[in-house]
Design goal:
Layout: H1 7-27, H2 34-41, H3 45-52, H4 55-77, H5 84-101, H6 103-112, H7 118-145, H8 154-167, H9 180-195
């Protein structure tokens, strides 16, 4: 769907998107109705369909909203300079910030995108490929420099690290026992322990 152009239209678009995100996150996409989304957004069902066309298109837009945010962050991180260790640490901190700030959208993305059609699903999943490439590249740089263990498959390691970070979506809470800084510190130490060169070997 084309992006709305007027300010009032953009606000209405965002209100519908926010309502859908909240309901999909709490109830799941299959059982949430467009009547419920429209009511929570304060619009008519006809207006909802005017902006999004269908319930599935609305789910796609929720997924795309988080992939756009995530892609912008990944592209910024891809320009990082410095040692592989410093870059990996920055990626971990930044990813935790993303998950914390956009937790509900990440949860909807991870749980509900399977309901999209093949073309939509392929598009929203492109972001995963970009993050894997980013993390794998840092690991490979670290292996070449001797900072990281060459015995690890860089692709497997990248997927493992990103799954660890994505998993935080399900248990990290803004009012939880750990601050983002503490989570980043614990997670970074775990990742670096796994990537460290085995001195005994």
């Amino acid at each position: 769907m084309p992006a709305p152009t007027s300010e009032s239209a953009r606000r209405r678009h965002q209100d519908i998107l926010a309502a859908a995100t909240d309901l999909f996150g709490r109830k799941g996409w299959p059982v949430t109705t467009t009547d419920e989304v429209a009511a929570q957004a304060g619009v008519t069902k006809r207006t909802l369909y005017k902006y999004f066309g269908s319930k599935q298109a609305l789910l796609y837009e929720v997924g795309k909203s988080i992939t756009d945010i995530s892609r912008a962050r990944a592209q910024t991180l891809a320009t990082l300079e410095g040692s592989p260790g410093d870059r990996m640490r920055t990626v971990i901190v930044s990813y935790i910030d993303l998950v914390s700030a956009w937790q509900v959208r990440y949860a909807v993305f991870l749980e509900e995108m399977k309901h999209l059609d093949d073309a939509q699903l392929a598009h929203v999943r492109e972001i995963g490929t970009e993050w894997v490439a980013l993390v794998r590249g840092i690991i490979e740089d670290g292996q070449r420099s001797g900072d990281f263990d060459r015995g690890h498959d860089a692709t497997v390691a990248a997927f493992t690290i990103l799954e660890l970070l994505n998993g935080m979506t399900y248990w990290v809470r803004g009012d939880g026992a750990w601050s983002q800084a503490q989570l980043a510190d614990h997670t970074t130490r775990l990742v670096f322990a796994g990537l460290a060169v085995d001195q005994a070997a």
